[in-house]
Write a structure and sequence with these properties.
Radius of gyration: 44 Å
Distance between the termini: 106 Å
Number of helices: 21
Number of domains: 4
CATH topology of the largest domain: Rhopdopsin 7-helix transmembrane proteins
Helix content: 40-55%
Number of strands: 30
Shape: elongated
CATH class of the largest domain: Mainly Alpha
Strand order of the largest sheet: 11-10-12-13-14-19-20-21
Structural class: alpha/beta
Oligomer: single chain
Strand content: 15-25%
Length: about 850
């Protein structure tokens, strides 16, 4: 939780406008403590490191360890203990920044003609003692909020709070470390992967710890993992907090402990546990301490810390950095106060030291560059800043050269808002060939998974055992050495795992990890131990007796192969064939009085609609699909409306013909000419088309499995997603049918030897009777018989219309041709 801050001309006054890059470490620090240094190096003038340049990059690191603070009251000014002990790791971060600046200055293509300088100070972690200080996500939030209105960019290499990804609140914030969301989720997935359902947690008492544990809890929610306790540590009260947390861990039944803290607090905690000989705990480490050389080299905690598995910042290499570190010497860098103090600590410098000490050929954690993590983040941050500067000063916008040179900036005219704009579009290619760019505030999340293992020499060694890429976790389990000293995964549960065929049932008033095992219900299974829930079998399956597997269920629908399907298919095809035969008869005898007297055009259209009615029933047979479910209802509704519309218009024509015989009614027939008849049929049918189109577009029938009773067959049917749509289709057909029946009934006694209204009356009585009976039969029929009922209604009503209207006519045409004359038809 630290950051790089660009702050123009706020610290130093100069003839040039200055660009300050502040690098702040995660750990809190205190005021700079003075140390006795080798006399021939000269007395330090203050804890700082600087080099002149055209643009100054200011570095602010937490280089000193923070001891416990004195308890603060409200009756006097705050009292603080001084910082003690130069921290080796932050010093290495500092030199990663210096190395990057010097490497950029040697680069002829990046910032040509511009020399970068730097000024580096120790923050000592006190907000009041420096302009930019305390290194935590909380401070990062405050600083970003303050500097946001000034458009001052902040590039962080350790501030991992998820909240800082919000571009609306923190538009000026960037970082080269992933958000804590990813590492917290990775640790949660480790817990679920190894079935650690009973875990303890120790977190840093700040935004870093609180937000990380919140994400962890969200990720394990509903997965049968719970926290037995959450202890907090704070740097200012670490001695007291570490003792309390160690006692809690010792008394707990959880064998896996999640620790999300800074490594200095973890050191105190592990030391307290070592005093109590608590060596049977498996630790999950956050990236803040999972790779700490100070902890790995500490022999007093090796028994306690053996087997640690942790999420670590992605490692990488920086060519030339090791040689740079080994070449460091206070004599060559007389102004490096921090290096002098490091030298004194490592080599015991005194007033009589020769100054010939060297890091060349020495095996030391400070010169180990095999796996650079935070250092590489600092390195990337400096390069991101340099590329943004390069884009700003060289008048480029990405890969495009600007033509308006007057808009170009110079080291004397750098504006924070311009730099922020270029930083948003920066696309860095490091000397190692790695492509790097920001995704909003963040970079693509990548972590290493590491394991602390025993060595014959004594200190623990860090072993890479996997990685995290975004939300994907990759772990080589065979390479992990657990706290047990073997490859046997530790067990950390409150209740023993439930066997297959049962599920966990929480005990009232206890955490979800403490549970009873109850058998799965019928139709549900659990096929592995420790199932949180019983899974319902798929719709085409059912559970076996043991509730451990799903047995396939027979899929049932009205098919063409079964007896009922064959019968209905035969009836439908026969009806279509008979209708076709009648159509052929009418076509052959279309000039005869019988055909002409009965409105031949509407008769042909009626026969066509009846044929469609017979054929549409075939769509209901067979395996339901998305399109068949939609087609069958639309075809049924439109075909029958077309049929009834023809009958209705025929009836109206009959009434109009006899009405026109009355005096003064000559104009009535003008409304019932052939064009008006066709238009009326089209109008009535179009209304049904609109109803069907609206229904099928909003909530169409869909294939659905009806599970039915336990152990029964699975019926595949077209479920009516909207009963309203189906009701409107049937209702409209019913409305036309009732209207047609009423008019035909009124016209049944009109004087004519062959009054078609009588035939229409009989046919519509049958039609209405069939569909009135259909409704209760449809509602009460089970499974596939629902479809059979609807098909039967379609066929019965279609046969009724065909036989009642056309059978008498065909009888006269084919068997009584002597009656097929105009004179016979006109006889009253």
């Amino acid at each position: 939780m630290s950051w790089l801050i660009w702050l123009p001309a706020l610290w130093l006054s100069s003839a040039l406008s200055l660009l300050i890059l502040s690098v702040v470490g995660r750990q809190k620090g205190l005021n700079v403590a003075q140390a006795t240094m080798c006399s021939h190096w000269g007395a330090p003038s203050g804890k700082s490191l600087s080099q002149d340049g055209d643009v100054i990059i200011g570095g602010l690191f937490n280089l000193y360890y923070i001891p416990s603070a004195v308890e603060q009251g409200f009756t006097r000014l705050p009292q603080y203990e001084p910082c003690t002990g130069l921290e080796q790791e932050p010093l290495k971060y500092l030199h990663a920044m210096v190395f990057a600046v010097e490497e950029i200055n040697r680069n002829n293509t990046l910032l040509p003609g511009v020399k970068l300088g730097y000024r580096i100070l120790d923050s000592c972690g006190r907000p009041a003692s420096l302009l930019i200080a305390a290194a935590s996500s909380t401070t990062g939030i405050i600083m970003s909020s303050i500097l946001g209105p000034l458009s001052v960019p902040i590039i962080s290499y350790l501030a991992s709070c998820p909240c800082l990804s919000d571009r609306l609140k923190y538009p000026n914030f960037f970082r080269t470390i992933p958000s804590d969301i990813y590492q917290a989720r990775a640790m949660a997935r480790l817990a679920t992967r190894f079935h650690w359902t009973w875990i303890g947690a120790v977190i840093e008492n700040n935004d870093y710890g609180q937000l990380a544990i919140k994400v962890f809890q969200e990720e394990i929610k509903g997965k049968g993992v719970c926290l037995e306790f959450i202890e907090t540590l704070k740097a200012e009260t670490i001695v007291r907090d570490a003792k309390r947390a160690a006692l809690t861990i010792q008394a707990s039944t959880a064998r896996v402990i999640l620790i999300i803290c800074w490594y200095t607090e973890v050191r105190k905690l592990l030391q307290e546990m070592a005093k109590r000989n608590v060596t049977d705990r498996q630790f999950l480490a956050s990236e803040a301490w999972s790779t700490s050389d100070d902890l790995l080299q500490d022999q007093t905690i090796s028994k306690v810390a053996n087997g640690v598995v942790g999420v670590a910042i992605r490692s990488s290499s920086i060519p030339g950095f090791e040689n740079y570190l080994r070449s460091l010497h206070p004599i060559h860098r007389p102004n490096d106060d921090f290096l002098r103090e490091f030298w004194q600590k490592e080599f015991g410098c005194s007033l009589v030291s020769s100054g010939t000490e060297s890091l060349e050929g020495v095996q030391h954690p400070f010169t180990d560059t095999s796996r650079l993590r935070v250092e590489y983040n600092v390195y990337l941050a400096v390069y991101a800043a340099a590329h943004a500067l390069h884009s700003l000063l060289s008048c480029t916008d990405g890969d495009r050269v600007l033509t308006n040179i007057s808009t170009c900036s110079s080291p004397k005219q750098i504006k924070a808002i311009e730099l922020l704009q270029h930083l948003n579009k920066v696309n860095v290619t490091t000397p190692q060939g790695e492509m790097f760019h920001f995704q909003g505030a963040d970079i693509p999340a990548k972590y290493d998974l590491v394991n602390w293992q025993k060595t014959s020499e004594g200190p623990l060694k860090l072993v890479l055992v996997g990685g995290v890429d975004g939300f994907n976790l990759h772990l080589n389990e065979s390479a992990v050495q657990w706290s047990t000293g073997s490859s046997q995964v530790p067990v950390s549960v409150c209740s023993e795992s439930c066997p297959a065929g049962t599920r966990k049932a929480n005990r009232k008033g206890e955490p979800v990890c403490c549970f009873d095992c109850i058998p799965c219900a019928a139709g549900e299974i659990s096929n592995k131990d420790g199932s949180l829930h019983c899974e319902r079998c798929p719709s085409d399956s059912w559970s076996n007796v043991e509730q451990t597997a799903c047995i396939p269920r027979q899929l049932d629908f009205l098919s063409f192969n079964e007896t009922l399907g064959i019968t209905l298919t035969t009836a439908a095809v026969s009806g279509a064939a008979v209708t076709t035969a009648v159509f052929v008869v009418f076509l052959c005898y279309r000039q005869t009085p019988m055909v002409r007297a009965n409105n031949s055009e509407l008769s042909f259209l009626l026969l066509l609609s009846l044929k469609l009615c017979f054929l549409c029933s075939l769509v209901f047979i067979g395996r339901p699909s998305v399109w068949s479910c939609r087609l069958q209802q639309a075809a049924f509704g439109i075909s029958f409306v077309l049929c009834v519309s023809c009958l209705l218009v025929k009836t109206l024509v009959v009434l109009a013909v006899f009405r026109s015989a009355r005096p003064g009614a000559e104009t009535l027939m003008k409304w019932f000419g052939p064009g008006q008849q066709r238009g009326s049929v089209c109008f009535f049918t179009s209304i049904q088309v609109i109803i069907c189109a609206t229904w099928l577009s909003i909530s169409p029938p869909v294939p659905q499995r009806d599970l039915g009773f336990q152990g029964s067959k699975v019926t595949l049917e077209c479920a009516m997603a909207s009963a309203v749509g189906f009701s409107l289709v049937l209702g409209y057909i019913g409305l036309l049918a009732c209207t047609c029946l009423l008019l035909a009934f009124l016209a049944r006694k009109l004087p004519d030897n062959f009054n078609e209204a009588k035939l229409i009356t009989f046919s519509m009585l049958i039609f209405c009777a069939v569909w009135v009976a259909f409704v209760p039969a449809y509602v009460s029929s089970p499974g596939k018989y629902v479809v059979a009922v609807e098909i039967f209604a379609i066929l019965a009503s279609s046969y009724g219309l065909l036989l009642c209207i056309f059978a008498p006519k065909c009888f006269i045409i084919l068997l009584r041709p002597e009656k097929n004359t105009k004179k016979q038809l006109m006889t009253r």
